[in-house]
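Priority: low. Protein: FAD:protein FMN transferase. Input follows.
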Amino acid sequence: MSSSTAPASASVVHTLYGETMGTRWRVDLVAPRDMLLHPLHAALQARLDAIVAQMSTWRDDSDLMRYNRGAPGSWHPLADDFFAVVDCALQVAAASDGAFDPTVGRLVGAWGFGAHAGPRRVPDPRVLAEARSTAGWRRLELRRGTRELLQPGGTWLDLSAIAKGYAVDALAALLRARGIPAALVDVGGELRGYGRKPDGAAWRVLVEAGGDDTADPCVVVLDDAAVATSGPYWQRYEVEGRECSHTIDPRTGRPVTDAPAAVSVVAGDAMRADAWSTALAVMGVGAGERFARVHGLAARLLPAGPGATPRTTPGFEARLLR
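Result:
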């Protein structure tokens, strides 16, 4: 929590933080200096815990893991958070023609990542073929009226590329409902800001700047907006003499080859920013930039390598601090 010599009724920026989803969360919020923050902190942590209980791949008792173990042809009622994330995930999957796909759970594990990872090596072709046979967002059917999701058989959802963004949005909604006029929410590097700080300024955040220490900083203004960054190039490993990205292309079942160093997307909500940053990273620098421009996404793609020149769309340029 912040300290201040301002009067007790004056608004200041307080900071709350904790742990969730294998990472840390932080909230900077504007409130009276003497506001009791412990109940709010507890409410924020409880909100995150509820999301984890629904969508974690690391908990065998989560709603998501129960779905993953479901019998072929079974329909599963989804809790509100789970439904909202799956609904958005399927929309982005369709719009990106499968560059984003929430059914990559077995593929991710086959390449040695995630909660149910196998050995970190090139998978046996039979293992890879089996994982691909149970993946594919088109296999899913969502009954939006009754909020039920079909388990077609063997499909493993993995919402890691969208759930953190949703958690950011959920915390922002809770803060607004509690009457907090302005806040910056951060869950594992996915951020959303709304309202103004006591000095009248909007929230400013630093995103991935460049491939070396000489690159100019990239500062984005979050005036009721969110930003998410995927950095597949920095999360790589060597397998059988080859460098592989941790980001799996759902369309091929293999690690992304033209992996950008980082992709940042600004959107009205963190859930979509999170999903689209992953989708563009999967597409690669060239195709990702073209897609973002055609579809009006506020995106910045940083090619791998020292001194690389970022590719930015007009929507992203408009969000930069001048």
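The longest helix spans residues 38-55. The chain has a mean pLDDT of 90.
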